[in-house]
Here is the input.
Amino acid sequence: MSAAKFSSSSAPPAAPASVRVRAPGKINASLRVGPLRPDGYHGVASVYLAVSLFEEVQATATEAPGITVTVDSDGPLHIPVADIPLGPDNLAARAAQALAGYAENPTGVHLHITKRVPVAGGMGGGSADAAAALVACDALWNTHLSREELAGIAAGLGADVPFSLLGGTAVGLGVGDRLTPAISKTPLHWVLVASDSGLSTPAVYGALDALRAEAQEQAEEPAEVDPAVLAAMRSGNARELAAVISNDLQAAALRLAPELADLLSTGERLGALAGMVSGSGPTVAFLAEDAGAAGKLEAALRGGGHRALAVEGPAPGARLLPAVVG
Ligand code: ATP
Here is the structure.
């Protein structure tokens, strides 16, 4: 009996006309921030955790050249999208533009972003859009870059973009872009609370510098993350982690948005093991004992009029979604 024959062709597979990618928002279980550097940045030592709140980007090839963007939002956090730039400043458009330089024949592309991560919320939502757009255009344009090459382009787009590409749990050094994956037992349960207005990340870093100057505090360049945080993530013990989560930007975010102090104590009164401002804020992340406790806390916070959502982490990084049939 002869072996079955399969037809083969040397031509590369045709690029799809439209692809969808989802990429996670993040929280920082620990964030140490160094002094303002001469280049205008701050060094950080961060324990990133990707959570199950995903941005989605659909990239569709267009006959007309160029990059166009539309944005809407869905999901329980009701993210307002009116202030998001739709031109070349949109982080997803910047990502597509950067990737086009690596494609042989990039078509025009329309990027439709479905936002679920709070805008200017300290959860890297725009960075997730950029990571999703990189993966989407890589598939649309058949560029087939490696994850390392995509990460290199991501780092040029923003400090949090490489992490949204990677997902999971990672230590971030440098400006947050030098990543080392870390071990974390799945899942840790958190409840996010979105704020009605955002905080500008540079303004929060500026407020931190001002607070330190007022206190005559000499910050040091952070060389490593708190090992106790990594140990707690590794064991997956929420109580252990609750005792050690910390964020150097929290006091600065509270100075700019003092109402967050009440929210933090409300969440803890309602049963959170601990609460913290996520990154530069103003989104607050509460750590819960388990899924049941997170569900109860979400309900109690919603009952109090808050836009709350239970999520878990670690969650995977930017990934293609199956094609929609029909
Ligand atoms: P960071 O990554 O600095 O923590 P963030 O999560 O606080 O940022 P983002 O939602 O990423 O905040 O957006 C910050 C600003 O970037 C917004 O105010 C908006 O003007 C601009 N921006 C550009 N592209 C996007 C995008 N695709 N989604 C959201 N904001 C965008």
